[in-house]
Design goal:
By secondary structure, the chain is an alpha+beta fold. It has two helices and five strands, in the order ααβββββ. The chain has a five-stranded antiparallel sheet, covered by helices on one side. The longest helix has 25 residues.
C-alpha cells in the first residue's frame, strides 16, 4: 500500500473510532505530517529545494468522509509553494486522495498520492 494512503487510513481509523475531539486533532496532525513528508519527497524528486518543511493546516471538516489540507512553503530561491489536498471517502477502506502542488503559481504536480512510495505517472 502506498505510504501516504497507509497514513491516511491510520489517521482516519483513529478519528472514526473515537468521538473525542482531542483524538481528532491528533489524527489531523498526523495526516498533516504525512502530507508534509510526501510534499517534501515529491518536490525533492523534481529538483525543487525547500527552505523549510511546509506548514500545513486542516480547514474545518465538511464531514467525516471529507478531509482537506492546505500547505505553504518557500523554495530555496524564495518562490511560494502551495499544496491543496482533499480526501473523499475518508471514513472508508478506500479513501480517494487528490493533491495539487504549485511553485511560483505554476502547477508542478497533480496526483492521487504523495511520497516516495507513490508511482509517478511521468516516469
Amino acid at each position: 500500500m502506498r505510504r501516504l494512503s497507509a497514513a491516511v487510513l491510520a489517521v482516519l481509523l483513529a478519528v472514526t473510532m473515537s468521538g473525542c475531539k482531542v483524538m481528532q486533532r491528533i489524527s489531523d496532525g498526523a495526516y498533516r505530517n504525512a502530507v508534509t513528508d510526501g510534499v517534501v519527497d515529491e518536490l525533492d524528486a523534481r529538483g525543487v529545494e525547500l527552505r523549510d518543511r511546509p506548514e500545513c493546516r486542516s480547514p474545518g471538516r465538511e464531514t467525516d468522509s471529507v478531509v482537506r489540507v492546505d500547505c505553504t512553503a518557500r523554495t530555496a530561491a524564495g518562490e511560494p509553494v502551495a499544496v491543496e489536498g482533499i480526501v473523499h471517502d475518508a471514513d472508508t477502506e478506500r479513501p480517494r486522495e487528490s493533491y495539487v502542488v504549485t511553485v511560483g503559481g505554476r502547477e508542478v504536480l497533480r496526483k492521487d498520492c504523495l511520497g516516495l512510495g507513490c508511482e509517478h505517472p511521468d516516469g
